[in-house]
Protein backbone atom coordinates (compact mmCIF):
# COMPACT_ATOMS: atom_id res chain seq x y z
CA UNK A 1 0.00 0.00 0.00
CA UNK A 2 1.13 3.54 -0.64
CA UNK A 3 1.73 6.13 2.06
CA UNK A 4 -1.66 7.81 1.67
CA UNK A 5 -3.45 4.48 2.01
CA UNK A 6 -1.46 3.62 5.14
CA UNK A 7 -2.17 7.04 6.60
CA UNK A 8 -5.89 6.60 6.00
CA UNK A 9 -5.91 3.04 7.37
CA UNK A 10 -4.16 4.11 10.57
CA UNK A 11 -5.76 7.50 11.14
CA UNK A 12 -2.46 9.33 10.89
CA UNK A 13 -0.77 11.56 8.34
CA UNK A 14 1.77 10.87 5.63
CA UNK A 15 4.06 13.31 7.40
CA UNK A 16 3.86 11.28 10.63
CA UNK A 17 4.59 8.09 8.71
CA UNK A 18 7.67 9.65 7.12
CA UNK A 19 8.73 10.74 10.62
CA UNK A 20 8.29 7.18 11.96
CA UNK A 21 10.32 5.92 9.01
CA UNK A 22 13.09 8.44 9.66
CA UNK A 23 13.10 7.33 13.32
CA UNK A 24 13.61 3.72 12.19
CA UNK A 25 10.25 2.50 13.49
CA UNK A 26 8.74 1.53 10.13
CA UNK A 27 10.21 0.70 6.76
CA UNK A 28 9.05 0.55 3.19
CA UNK A 29 10.10 -0.48 -0.26
CA UNK A 30 10.31 1.95 -3.14
CA UNK A 31 8.33 1.41 -6.31
CA UNK A 32 9.95 2.05 -9.68
CA UNK A 33 8.42 5.53 -9.65
CA UNK A 34 9.96 6.27 -6.23
CA UNK A 35 6.73 6.01 -4.25
CA UNK A 36 6.86 4.42 -0.83
CA UNK A 37 5.17 1.02 -0.69
CA UNK A 38 4.31 -0.45 2.71
CA UNK A 39 3.53 -4.03 3.64
CA UNK A 40 0.06 -4.74 5.07
CA UNK A 41 1.72 -5.49 8.44
CA UNK A 42 2.62 -1.80 8.68
CA UNK A 43 -0.98 -1.09 9.72
CA UNK A 44 -0.49 -3.03 12.97
CA UNK A 45 2.95 -1.55 13.54
CA UNK A 46 1.74 2.04 13.07
CA UNK A 47 -1.25 1.33 15.31
CA UNK A 48 1.10 0.13 18.04
CA UNK A 49 3.36 3.15 17.61
CA UNK A 50 0.36 5.45 17.95
CA UNK A 51 -0.85 3.50 21.01
CA UNK A 52 2.52 3.94 22.74
CA UNK A 53 2.75 7.62 21.79
CA UNK A 54 -0.77 8.21 23.11
CA UNK A 55 0.33 6.59 26.38
CA UNK A 56 2.89 9.37 26.77
CA UNK A 57 6.00 7.71 25.37
CA UNK A 58 8.32 9.43 22.92
CA UNK A 59 9.58 8.03 19.62
CA UNK A 60 12.89 7.29 21.35
CA UNK A 61 10.99 5.38 24.03
CA UNK A 62 9.06 3.44 21.39
CA UNK A 63 12.34 2.07 19.98
CA UNK A 64 12.58 -0.15 23.08
CA UNK A 65 9.46 -1.94 21.85
CA UNK A 66 10.68 -2.58 18.28
CA UNK A 67 10.67 -6.35 18.72
CA UNK A 68 6.98 -6.43 19.59
CA UNK A 69 5.52 -3.66 17.41
CA UNK A 70 4.15 -6.18 14.92
CA UNK A 71 2.01 -7.94 17.55
CA UNK A 72 -0.48 -6.92 20.20
CA UNK A 73 1.63 -4.52 22.27
CA UNK A 74 -1.17 -3.83 24.75
CA UNK A 75 -1.63 -7.52 25.56
CA UNK A 76 2.04 -8.57 25.51
CA UNK A 77 3.79 -9.12 28.84
CA UNK A 78 6.08 -6.16 29.51
CA UNK A 79 9.83 -6.59 29.42
CA UNK A 80 12.02 -5.29 32.21
CA UNK A 81 13.39 -2.60 29.89
CA UNK A 82 9.90 -1.67 28.72
CA UNK A 83 8.76 -1.25 32.32
CA UNK A 84 11.81 0.85 33.10
CA UNK A 85 11.17 3.16 30.13
CA UNK A 86 7.51 3.50 31.09
CA UNK A 87 8.39 4.31 34.71
CA UNK A 88 10.96 6.90 33.61
CA UNK A 89 8.46 8.53 31.25
CA UNK A 90 5.81 8.56 34.00
CA UNK A 91 8.24 10.36 36.31
CA UNK A 92 8.92 12.98 33.63
CA UNK A 93 5.20 13.47 33.02
CA UNK A 94 4.53 13.80 36.76
CA UNK A 95 7.25 16.46 37.03
CA UNK A 96 5.72 18.39 34.14
CA UNK A 97 2.25 18.14 35.63
CA UNK A 98 3.53 19.39 39.00
CA UNK A 99 5.29 22.35 37.34
CA UNK A 100 2.18 23.23 35.33
CA UNK A 101 0.00 22.94 38.43
CA UNK A 102 2.28 25.33 40.31
CA UNK A 103 2.23 27.80 37.42
CA UNK A 104 -1.57 27.62 37.26
CA UNK A 105 -1.85 28.14 41.02
CA UNK A 106 0.43 31.21 40.90
CA UNK A 107 -1.53 32.70 38.03
CA UNK A 108 -4.83 31.97 39.71
CA UNK A 109 -3.65 33.64 42.94
CA UNK A 110 -2.41 36.70 41.04
CA UNK A 111 -5.70 37.00 39.17
CA UNK A 112 -7.73 36.58 42.34
CA UNK A 113 -5.73 39.32 44.08
CA UNK A 114 -6.12 41.60 41.07
CA UNK A 115 -9.89 41.14 41.12
CA UNK A 116 -10.19 41.61 44.89
CA UNK A 117 -7.83 44.62 45.00
CA UNK A 118 -8.02 46.28 41.57
CA UNK A 119 -5.85 49.26 42.52
CA UNK A 120 -3.12 47.26 44.27
CA UNK A 121 0.09 46.23 42.63
CA UNK A 122 -0.14 42.56 41.80
CA UNK A 123 2.51 40.31 43.37
CA UNK A 124 5.10 38.80 41.11
CA UNK A 125 3.73 35.38 40.16
CA UNK A 126 7.10 33.62 40.54
What does this structure look like?
By secondary structure, this protein is mainly alpha-helical. The protein contains five helices and two strands. It is elongated. The model has no long low-confidence stretch (mean pLDDT 93).
Q: Which range does the strand content fall in?
A: under 5%
Q: Indicate the mean pLDDT.
A: 93
Number of helices: 5
Shape: elongated
What ranges have pLDDT less than 50 throughout 5 or more consecutive residues? Answer: none
Radius of gyration: 22 Å
> What profile does the largest beta sheet have?
2 strands, antiparallel
**Chain oligomer state:** single chain
Helix content: 55-70%
* Annotation, overall tally of beta strands: 2
**Spatial ordering of strands, largest sheet:** 1-2
SSE-based structural type = mainly alpha
CA distance, first residue to last residue: 53 Å
Order of helices and strands: HHEEHHH
Tell me briefly what this model is.
With 126 residues, this protein is mainly alpha-helical.
What attributes does this structure have?
single chain, 126 residues, mainly alpha, two-stranded antiparallel ribbon, elongated
Topology:
Layout: H1 3-10, H2 14-22, E1 29-30, E2 36-37, H3 42-54, H4 59-62, H5 80-116
Antiparallel strand pairs: 1-2
Amino acid sequence: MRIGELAKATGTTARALRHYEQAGLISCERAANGYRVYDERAVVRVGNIRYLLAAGLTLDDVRVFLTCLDGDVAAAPPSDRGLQVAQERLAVLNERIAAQTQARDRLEAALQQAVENPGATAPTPY
